[in-house]
Amino acid sequence: MNMKLRQYKPEDSQIICSWVKDEKTLFQWSADRIGKFPLMGNELNENYAARKAGLDFFPLTALDEKENVIGHLFVLIPDVNVKTTVRFGFVIVSPEIRGKGCGKKMLELAIEYAKKELKATKVTLGVFANNPKAQACYEAVGFKPVSKRIMNILGSDWECIDMELDLN
Predict the structure, then answer these.
(1) Containing H/E element for 30?
(2) Cα angle, residue 124 at apex, residues 83 and 144 outer, rounded to 5°
(3) pLDDT tens-digit profile, the chain (168 residues)
(4) pTM
(5) Is 70 in contact with 18 (CB distance < 8 Å)?
(6) Across the strands, what pairs with 144?
(7) Can you name the residues that pair with 87 across neighbouring β-strands?
(8) Long-range contacts, 23-28 (Cβ 8 Å, 24+)
(9) Contacts of 151-154 spanning 24+ positions with Cβ under 8 A
(10) Distance CA 45, CA 142 (A)
(11) Fewer CB within 10 A of the end CB, N or C, for the chain?
(12) CB–CB of 154/23 below 8 Å?
């Protein structure tokens, strides 16, 4: 499948939010950053409104060859004093294309973006242990687990695995 990344647009929110079909999926995808289910469709725009898009926050949307929205993630520079380390978040692909290598392709494109556009030398992300398919996808593009922490999600303890990819 041909895929490209472009800057996120507000009209993408409705499509991306429609992929989140249940509360567990919402929290696996966004941790506690959105925090309310069901999604009405504008939650990404609301979440992103407070962020400094283009300065240290770069939301990206994946498109197929017909320009259909098929995936999304953001790239964040979490520490402006260490601009060479970026973090990926809100990584999601359309349910119709899951399990077909599209998440891996989107991550590869995002890694190239981080290297070329942001001059990143390291990428980090977090994945919950109860989301083994996502973890396997991250490992397939080279991410390695570096630490674990516990987050209280939906009234129970979820193990979050922090992963890193060295781009040097």
Answers:
(1) helix 23-30
(2) 140
(3) 799 999 999 999 999 999 999 999 999 999 999 989 999 999 999 999 988 777 899 999 999 999 999 999 999 999 989 999 999 999 999 999 999 999 999 999 999 999 999 999 999 999 999 999 999 999 999 999 999 999 999 999 999 999 999 998
(4) 0.95
(5) no
(6) 164
(7) 76, 124
(8) 23/154, 24/130, 24/154, 27/128, 27/153, 27/154, 27/158, 28/128, 28/130, 28/131, 28/134
(9) 151/31, 151/32, 153/27, 153/31, 153/32, 153/128, 154/23, 154/24, 154/27
(10) 30
(11) C
(12) yes
Residue 53's Cβ-side half-sphere holds a number of Cα atoms within 13 Å equal to: 14
Give the residue from 105, 73, 70, 69 showing the smallest Cα distance to 88.
73
Q: Tokens 């009234």 correspond to what residue?
A: 155
